[in-house]
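step=encode ok
step=design start
structure_in=
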C-alpha cells in the first residue's frame, strides 16, 4: 500500500484499540496520551518502508517515509535498505532469488516489529522524558508525512520538521513526570505490524514468516492470491480502504471522548440549577 494508507491504518488501529481497552478493560487515557499514541502508531505504520531508498544527493525518490526529513531521512533509508539487503543475502537459502535491493525484506518481518518495539520501550525507559520527546519528534514527522501527504509534499521537509518539533515541544511541556511510557514501544510495534498486514493484501506480499525456512526458502513472500490482491494506488486502496480507516478512526474518537463530554455537560447543567 501507499504511505497515506499505511499511516491511516496505523492511526485507525491505535484509536480502535484504545476504545476497546477503555470499553472492555477500563483502561483510560488522557486526550494527549491518545493523540501521542495515535501519532506514534501512524508513524510506525510507515517505518518498514525505510528500506526503500531514493537519491540522497538529489533529495529525490524513495518511499513516503524516506522523504520526511529531506536528505537526512533519505540517507537513513539508504543505510536501512543496504542493511536489509545484507541480512537477506546472509540468510537466503538455495531457492531464494538473488536481489539487488532490500525493499520488503528484513523491515517487513515480525522480528523487526518486535525489535523496534522493544528498542523504543528500552530507550524511553532508560532515558525518560527526553527520549520520549525524541521518539515523538521522529514519529510525528512520519505521521504528518503519511496522513497529510499532499500538504507535506507542497510544504516541504523543512516545514514538516518544524511542525514535528512543535508537536514534540508541546508533548514535553504537558507530559506528566519522568517515566518510561512503555505504550510508545507497543504503538511502534503495532504500527509496523499493521504495515505488514497492509502489504500482505497487495500483489507481492511480505516475508512475514522469516526466519522460518520453507522448502529451501528463507524469504518466502506471504500474501493473498494475486487475483484478489489490492492494486497499489488503485480505487480499492485509495477510496475503499482509506474511507474505512477514516470512519473507524472517527467512530473510535467519538466512542472515547463523547461520553465524558456528555457527562461533563450533564454535571454542569445540574450544578447550575
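sequence_out=
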Amino acid at each position: 500500500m501507499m504511505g497515506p494508507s499505511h499511516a491511516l491504518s496505523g492511526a485507525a488501529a491505535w484509536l480502535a484499540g484504545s476504545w476497546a481497552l477503555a470499553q472492555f478493560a477500563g483502561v483510560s487515557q488522557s486526550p494527549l496520551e491518545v493523540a501521542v499514541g495515535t501519532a506514534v502508531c501512524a508513524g510506525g505504520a510507515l517505518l518498514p518502508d525505510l528500506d526503500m531508498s531514493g537519491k540522497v544527493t538529489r533529495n529525490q525518490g524513495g518511499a513516503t517515509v524516506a522523504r520526511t526529513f529531506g536528505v537526512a531521512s533519505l540517507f537513513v533509508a539508504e543505510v536501512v535498505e543496504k542493511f536489509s539487503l545484507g541480512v537477506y543475502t546472509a540468510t537466503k537459502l538455495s531457492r531464494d532469488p538473488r536481489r539487488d535491493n532490500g525493499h520488503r525484506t528484513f523491515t517487513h518481518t515480525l522480528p523487526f516489529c518486535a525489535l523496534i518495539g522493544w528498542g523504543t520501550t528500552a530507550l524511553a525507559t532508560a532515558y525518560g522524558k527526553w527520549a520520549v520527546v525524541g521518539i515523538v519528534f521522529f514519529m510525528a514527522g512520519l505521521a504528518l508525512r503519511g496522513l497529510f501527504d499532499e500538504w507535506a509534499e507542497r510544504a516541504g521537509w523543512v516545514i514538516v520538521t518544524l511542525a514535528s518539533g512543535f508537536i514534540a515541544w508541546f508533548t514535553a511541556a504537558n507530559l506528566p513526570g519522568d517515566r518510561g511510557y512503555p505504550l510508545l514501544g507497543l504503538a511502534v510495534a503495532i504500527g509496523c505490524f499493521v504495515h505488514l498486514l497492509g502489504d500482505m493484501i497487495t500483489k507481492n506480499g511480505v516475508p512475514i514468516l522469516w526466519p522460518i525456512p520453507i522448502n529451501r526458502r528463507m524469504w518466502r513472500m506471504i500474501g493473498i492470491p494475486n487475483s484478489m490482491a489490492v492494486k497499489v494506488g488503485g480505487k480499492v486502496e485509495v477510496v475503499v480502504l482509506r474511507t474505512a480507516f477514516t470512519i473507524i478512526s472517527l467512530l473510535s474518537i467519538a466512542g472515547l471522548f463523547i461520553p465524558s463530554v456528555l457527562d461533563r455537560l450533564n454535571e454542569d447543567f445540574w450544578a447550575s440549577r
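step=design ok
step=annotate ok -> The chain is about 65% helix and 0% strand.
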